[in-house]
Design brief:
Helix content of chain B: 55-70%
Shape of chain B: elongated
Number of helices of chain A: 13
Mean pLDDT of chain B: 80
Order of helices and strands of chain B: HHHHHHHH
Number of strands of chain B: 0
Radius of gyration of chain A: 34 Å
Distance between the termini of chain A: 54 Å
Number of helices of chain B: 8
Largest sheet of chain A: 13 strands, parallel
Helix content of chain A: 40-55%
Largest interface: A-B, 44 and 56 residues
Number of strands of chain A: 22
Mean pLDDT of chain A: 74
Strand content of chain A: 15-25%
Radius of gyration of chain B: 17 Å
Largest sheet of chain B: none
Oligomer: heterodimer
Strand content of chain B: under 5%
Distance between the termini of chain B: 54 Å
Structural class of chain B: mainly alpha
């Protein structure tokens, strides 16, 4: 009979031959002294190799073993941290706020809670009213912050590696949540006032803190020494504000003096009376700076109608459909507008630059004075965003952000990037999962926020949801890249890069880009859900 | 499983796991990190370990996969195990017969050094098979190749070892 091949003999010596073949070879060995000697030598070789490789094995010193927190424990810690943060915040709020509840019940109705519910409900209503686009955009713009978050989580993970001893591993999350608590608590006192219908700071009243107010009608006639943040339907500020004024409302009237800058967002914003010590940023449908009002700093106004009768201490920049200037501007006047009109009383100490649709859209009345040069340039008819440098720079930044985040995720959760899609039905199932996750998460989060205990959970869920919207695109891009490179094993970064490039090109296509972005997000979310499900099944 | 129980397993199996990592990665400092990470993964995945089974092979498999993954990530393995054995050149064997006795005739230190000097695509299967006591199938899974390919690589690795030990003899 023929002798078994060397490969067969080696496999036999390594006990790696299937039973039937091993038996046949064994029968051959009985009659063949050469092969017997060879097999014996191969076995001796295996034993010698084994012995040699185990040399010095026991001499290595045993380092201590400190288990780093498991993901579950880490999440639990984060959860406790968030809960603690919330509790401290609430306790602190109930100490400083003047709720009308009896003291021992104050924690039941903290202002921030009602505010949180309002915000959540508003968000939800907004979601149904305007569709997902603004949120997807918000998630996109939050990209950088998410990159930072991922990086800091990565740093945390590095910190929690087993080489650090137990005390450090335990203290770090504690310090982190402590830092969060302190980061969340403002350095000086804040007063919060909230009411369904009306909050008034009476003329004689002085609030010696930063004040946050939310109500349907807000009237500030007294003095606020700190910053004033106010939200409502109608906001009137007649008193004095020692710091910055931030107002968001349908109607905003600022009649008093503000020492700091003013940011006013509303349908109708009117500034009259008292001097403003800082800059003014106003946006809305109609923004008016009335006669007798002076702003010490720069003024930036974006509105459909802008009217400046007062005095601007430095430059005035306006973006408007209609811009009307009758007051004085001590710096330059820049107007990007459909129509710009300077009344006879208008005074511009610097240059006047108007960027208008047609050259005749700038009207300077006789009597109006411009000390510097007057320049008019016309808008090109709706310049394509694809022709601006900013657009490409922004895309490149977003791309880099996505790539860095993708690499970090790839390193942290390699399994998330190994997911595969084989067939169309699977793609459809995945997309279905993704759609459910896309819609159900914010709804459930908002529902959770209706209960007291659910608020931190709801906030956490919303944050995770926003993060996963961002991650979803990256996961889809990675999948596309792997399909594109067809199992090419040149490391994980290449498919990610290829996929992201493809995705960025596709989502920026005119007309279909938005749809592609939605599909990519839905598929990615589905992949994430599938991955989590596998993870769960693996643990069970 | 309690932390104390896991500690006992750790003390018992650390030397083997560390040794395996060192042979696979070829560097003691890397191996120390890797061994810690391997036990960390074992600790996290302990629910998947059935307490009746021997712990050694279970943690050994984690160690093998982790180290090979690590090497892969470092790109040192790129492409080596992708295709059939045909691509790996066969070392020239000076004596076709009786050469298997050559390795056994050398002292353990010389053999260990010769294994360390093997190219990665030979060293990994040798370490997994003869140190980690892994079956061809397990090695095939870890390296993402076929069991038959494992056999071919091991055979060639042995030939290469014989060759380098024979060279060593000639030098002396």
């Amino acid at each position: 009979m023929t002798h078994p091949s060397e490969l067969m003999r080696t496999r036999y010596a390594d006990r790696a031959l299937p039973e039937a073949q091993a038996a046949a070879l064994q029968r051959h060995l009985v009659d063949c002294a050469d092969c017997r000697a060879s097999v014996d030598a191969l076995i001796a070789e295996r034993v010698a190799l084994r012995r040699a490789l185990r040399l010095g094995e026991a001499t290595h010193e045993l380092p201590g073993f400190v288990p780093a927190p498991t993901i579950g424990r880490l999440v639990a810690w984060l959860g406790w941290g968030a809960l603690g943060l919330w509790a401290v915040n609430m306790a602190w709020l109930s100490l400083v706020s003047e709720a009308s509840l009896p003291g021992w019940l104050r924690w039941l109705a903290p202002d921030a809670l009602t505010l949180g519910i309002d915000l959540a409900v508003g968000l939800l209503a907004n979601l149904f009213a305007t569709g997902l686009d603004p949120i997807v955009e918000a998630a996109q713009s939050a990209g950088w912050r998410i990159v930072l978050t991922v990086l800091s989580l990565f740093g945390l993970w590095l910190l929690l590696r087993p080489k650090l001893d137990g005390a450090v591993a335990r203290v770090v999350p504690l310090l982190m949540s402590g830092a969060l608590v302190f980061a969340a608590a403002p350095s000086h006192a804040v007063e919060v006032r909230h009411d369904e219908t009306r909050v008034t700071i009476a003329a004689g009243e002085t609030v010696d803190d930063t004040l946050i107010v939310a109500a349907q009608d807000v009237v500030i006639e007294g003095t606020v020494t700190g910053d004033l943040f106010v939200m409502g339907e109608q906001v009137i500020v007649r008193g004095r504000v020692g710091g910055v004024l931030v107002a968001m409302a349908e109607r905003i009237d600022v009649d008093g003096g503000v020492a700091g800058s003013v940011l006013a967002l509303g349908e109708r914003v009117t500034l009259s009376g008292g001097p403003l010590g800082g800059n003014l940023f106003g946006a809305g449908r109609a923004v008016t700076l009335q006669s007798g009002t002076s702003v010490a700093g720069n003024v930036l106004l974006g509105a459909s109608e802008v009217r400046v009768d007062g005095e601007v201490g430095r430059d005035l920049l306006t973006l408007a459909e209609q811009a009307f200037v009758a007051g004085s501007v001590l710096g330059n006047l820049d107007a990007y507008a459909g129509h710009v009109e300077l009344a006879p009383t208008a005074r511009v100490a610097g240059d006047l630059t108007a960027r208008v649709k047609q050259a005749d859209a700038l009207q300077v009345a006789e009597g109006a004075s411009v000390a510097g040069e007057t320049g008019v340039s016309t808008w090109p008819e709706r310049p394509s965003k694809y022709l601006t440098l900013d657009y490409y720079l922004g895309e490149v930044l977003q791309f880099l952000g996505a790539f860095i985040a993708g690499l970090a995720l790839l390193y942290l959760f390699p399994a998330l990037f190994r997911v595969r899609l084989m067939a169309t039905p699977q793609l459809l199932t995945t997309a279905a999962f993704g759609s459910v996750a896309l819609i159900a998460t914010p709804v459930l989060a908002a529902a959770a926020m209706l209960t007291l205990i659910g608020v931190p959970l709801g906030v956490l869920a919303l944050l995770l949801w926003l993060v996963s919207l961002y991650v979803a695109g990256i996961v889809t891009a990675n999948l596309a890249g792997r399909l594109l490179l067809d199992g090419d094993d040149r490391g994980p970064a290449l498919p990610l890069l290829a996929g992201l490039t493809l995705l960025f090109v596709l989502i920026n296509l005119p007309f279909v880009g938005g749809l592609i972005r939605l599909v990519a997000t839905v598929v990615g979310l589905g992949l994430i859900v599938g991955w989590l499900r596998d993870l769960w099944a693996e643990r069970a | 499983m309690k932390k104390a129980d896991f500690d006992a397993l750790y003390r018992e199996h650390y030397p083997r796991v560390f040794g395996l990592c060192r042979r696979l990665l070829g560097d003691a400092a890397d191996a120390e990190d890797a061994a810690q990470e391997v036990f960390m993964r074992g600790y996290r995945a302990i629910r998947r370990y059935r307490s009746g089974d021997p712990f050694g092979p279970w943690i050994g498999a984690i160690a093998s996969n982790y180290c090979v993954d690590l090497l892969r990530r470092r790109r040192r393995l790129a492409g080596v195990f992708l295709d059939g054995a045909a691509e790996v050149p066969e070392p020239v064997d000076p004596e076709e017969h009786g050469s298997a006795a050559l390795i056994s005739a050398h002292d353990a230190g010389a053999i260990a050094r010769a294994v360390e000097a093997l190219p990665e695509h030979y060293r990994l299967p040798v370490v997994l098979a003869y140190y980690g006591d892994a079956s061809y199938e397990d090695i095939a899974n870890t390296l993402d190749i076929t069991a038959n390919h494992v056999g071919v690589l091991l055979l060639r690795a042995r030939k290469q070892l014989r060759l380098s030990l024979a060279d060593l003899d000639e030098e002396n």
